[in-house]
Amino acid sequence: MRKTINLLGWICVFFTIVSIVLTLLTTYQFTYVKYFNGYYTLQWSMFFTMIVWAIKLFDFKSNFNGKFYPIVCTIIAAGALFFIFMKVY
What we know:
Layout: H1 2-27, H2 40-57, H3 64-85
Helix pairs in contact: 1-2, 2-3
């Protein structure tokens, strides 16, 4: 199960990087990709990546860092979700 979450986390990171590159290329009008015209796709990919990384980093038996980093990832995911619902895209 741990390896599956780890692999899923890195797949999400890959898709987020691709989403960032395509959003920047479309925003600066180097090329046009329909779904990357705004920040909507980037926000959703950031949300899913941060949720998966929060699950990946969560550890019951660890010290302060084992609880701090998943909380930070969850706050970033909540921030992305806030901007999605406020229609900032």
